[in-house]
Design brief:
Layout lengths: L12 H11 L4 E3 L5 E3 L3 H11 L5 E8 L18 H11 L4 H11 L29 E3 L8 E4 H7 L12 H10 L3 E12 L9 H19 L3 H25 L6 H18 L2 H16 L3
Parallel strand pairs: 3-6
Antiparallel strand pairs: 1-5, 2-6, 3-5, 4-6
Amino acid sequence: MEFVYCEARAASITIQRNQGLEEAKADIVFLIDDDSLMHATCAAEILRIYNHDVGQTVVGVQAALSKQHPEHAQVDLDSRKTAGTRGVFARFLSQLLPSTGVRWIRTNLLLMNRESRFLPYDGDYPDHPVPAAVMELDVEPVRLMHGCRMTYRRQVIADVGFDDFLLSYCPGEDADASYRASRKGALLTAQRALIYHHESGAGRIKRRQATALTVLNKAVMTRRHSSDLLRDRRRCYRLAFRFLVAETLKDALALRWSFPQTRGVLAALRHVRTALRIPLPELRQWYADMQRSILSWR
């Protein structure tokens, strides 16, 4: 097997993903994170789905998350990101509410579901049936892909591209690209293709920065890709204020009394209106400057 290392053009995961797609030659590309570890049969199971999809109506397949790392992998457990709100809140709620109540709060109040944190640019999600040829392969349709475990038909994702307006950690870049890819065909989860996401804390930006970029990235990507900006401006404002409630609750439940995530949302809210209304020719430079300012926070 040949490995080719190319120096990154910029400190941006979206630019680096696009650069990788330019270099790639295979029909199928795996765009998993550097802290994602595939189980032994993961890649084969994913490729089996693409091979059975003779009509090429499936454009993306993501692996299923495993709680156990592969037996052949050596993992430094001390490097794993702490559970934070997710672990604390899950244990707290599980003692008080039935599972349906926990799911509702996680999705609608804390925005801990991918779809609850995303605004479909066409007002809703495309409806693609699961091809009959792959129905027996233990697959499930999915609306958005998770960056740590996603694969695509190379030509589809190369045509769509990752949003190169985004710099650094780029929260939301995976959902954005996968939604635009889903306009071209079905997205699936391969339940037999297991992958372990270690979620290493190394190299991550601070909570306040990540939260501010999460909110502003939504606004900028909506400005760029919405099919009805008048409709989606209102939706984006509402989502930003829902983020304020969600992140405040997360900070409190995790006993983060400096409220870094809340402060990140508040900082972003001051600029959401500009992001949604600035003329497109001016957007790239304005947002590049804004991101650099956020990333310089101490």
